Amino acid sequence: MILLLSLCAFGLLLQSDAQQDRAALWRGNDRSGRCQYTFTVPSPVEASCPQTGGPEVEGLKARLGLLEVLVARLSGGDTPPPAGPQGASARGQAELQEALNQATGERNLLRGEKERLERELGGLQRRMEEMRRETERLRNRPCPPQTPMVQPNPPLDRGSVIPAAGSNPMSHLMSRTNRQGDSSSLRDSAWQYGSPGFQELKAEVTEVPAPDGNDDNTGCGQLVSVGEPVTHRKADNIAGKYGVWMQDPEAVSPYGPSMVWRIDAVGTEIRQLFGYEDMEQLSRGFPSKVLLLPELVESTGAALYRGSLYYQRRRSRTLIRYDLSSESIAARRDLPHAGFHGQFPYSWGGYTDIDLAVDEKGLWAVYSTSKAKGAIVISQLDPHSLQVKKSWETSVRKNSVANSFVICGKLYTVASYASRDTLVNYMYDTETSQGKTVAIPFKNKYGYNSMVDYSPAQRKLFAWDNFHIVSYDVRLAGQQAN
Q1: pLDDT band per the 50, 70, 90 thresholds, residue 108
Q2: C-alpha triplet 141, 145, 146: angle, nearest 5°
Q3: Rounded distance, CA 427 to CA 226, Å?
Q4: Contact yes or no for 192/199 (Cβ under 8 A)
């Protein structure tokens, strides 16, 4: 046991023996659990003397220690070391608030995923019910009356076929020789007299080219159609819910033209650039190169062009050109007056204020400014210095569309990022400085499309749809169908 005598009381003991009859001796456990004795004498001069011990204080310390243990358990950490009353209370409150914020964020994320899955399940159930009703309707639907016709390819040993009254005796021969010119005759004949099993019906379609032909000999033209999405890979974790992937249309050594690059865009420390030898390695998930970018990346607006990665630095309007061969920053420049970090994003959010794009005509930036009042601004950039060469202001608000891409100097916008069946709904031509509405079907297969860019290297659209890396074939006016 340790016997302690407070300095204040000790001084008073030396000054006056008359006060010894009012002295007090008490004991209590110290912070290490050992017994501690304290002897005090009232002071004739001082009104009060601060004490560092006492039963009440020790009880308060014990209760504070228990509170620290409970707060540490709630926050998932180890029991914090005991400290003063104010320090323990502040630290415990901060840890408890941090744990509460983390749990709230995880709860909101899980709640959002649950609601999305419930919506998808409801959509699938409705689709199944519609398909079931359509199947029943088709099954119960009687065949329409058909004009009697001869069976195609009759066996030679069955004799001649008697044509219907009023028909040309050679009509059955004409229907056979007219396979390419009039497919409807063959179709009706097969439907009427074919086997009761499955019948494959084909129709010849005559395609009429759009009024805008090729712009030049590079194969450029106005977008006519977007194909079905093709899935190449699904991300492995939450960091890949949305991101950006790309190919260099003018690749520079040491990387070849088949190299594919990917950035996962979820989180606050986005700086990893993954490289794959080709599309097959991307689908298998085996990167051959991983680069750590010197500046953090903002959102999904990055692009690749002539051996450099172009991207927006986090929380700024600064554009960066990162040289892949030297693995260093080659240029940086602010995009004049551009909104950033949530001022003028696409409708899906994600801090998509500045979207960089590459097409047959070079490097572009799609963004907005306060002067434009949120309308989309298109600027063509110098790929070496990042200076703005020319800008165009459209009449479409950036937050009213889900995504955009540039093909042959024409900007196209996508109406929705979540609707499974949506449209490419607007086109702006930088050659004529004119915009117009269009209606080209577009599918968001997985219901959360956070990136759509044109790849001039592949002549396809690249997209990132709810953890999935997908691509779309495109057809331009004047191009032959595949």
Answers
A1: confident
A2: 125
A3: 14
A4: no
Give the number of other CB atoms < 10 A from CB of residue 231: 13
Residue in this structure with the two tokens 């691509």, named with its chain if needed: 471
What is the enclosing helix (H) or strand (E) of 59? helix 55-75
pTM for the structure as a whole: 0.58
Judge whether 304 and 248 are in contact, CB under 8 Å: yes
pLDDT of 371 over the 90 cut = yes
What pLDDT digit, counting tens, does each position of 216-253 carry?
456 789 999 999 999 999 998 999 999 999 999 999 99
Angle, CA 410 vertex, CA 408 and CA 416 arms, to 5° = 125
Q: Which residue has the higher pLDDT, 238 or 99?
A: 238
Which two structure tokens, joined as six digits, stand for 168? 């040309």
Model confidence at 409: pLDDT above 50: yes
**pLDDT tens by residue, 119-170:** 878 888 888 888 888 787 777 776 655 555 544 444 444 444 444 444 444 4
CA distances, 406 to each of 151, 301, 362, 385, 413 (Å): 53, 13, 10, 21, 9
Owner of token pair 């009042």:
373
Nearest to 289 by CA among 259, 268, 311, 269: 259
Residue of 339, 332, 336, 337 whose CA lies nearest to 313? 332
H/E/C letters for each residue in 415-439?
Answer: CCCCCCEEEEEEEEECCCCEEEEEE
Q: Residue 130: which H helix or E strand, with range?
A: helix 85-140
Q: Say which residue the tokens 């000999």 belong to.
A: 217
Cα(200)–Cα(415) distance, integer angstroms: 35
∠ CA 449-451-457 to the nearest 5 degrees? 130
> Does the CA dihedral 240-381-221-417 come out positive or negative?
positive
* Sheet with 403-407, side-by-side order of all strands: 403-407, 410-414, 421-429, 434-443
Helices (H), 141-182: 171-177
The residue among 410, 412, 411, 356 whose CA lies nearest residue 388 is 356
pLDDT digits (tens, 9 = 90+) for 51-65: 555 555 566 666 667
Q: Which helix (H) or strand (E) covers residue 243, if one does?
A: strand 243-247
Q: Which amino acid is at 469?
A: I
- CA quadruple 45, 47, 52, 56: dihedral positive or negative? positive
Nearest by Cα to 245 from 463, 403, 38, 399: 463
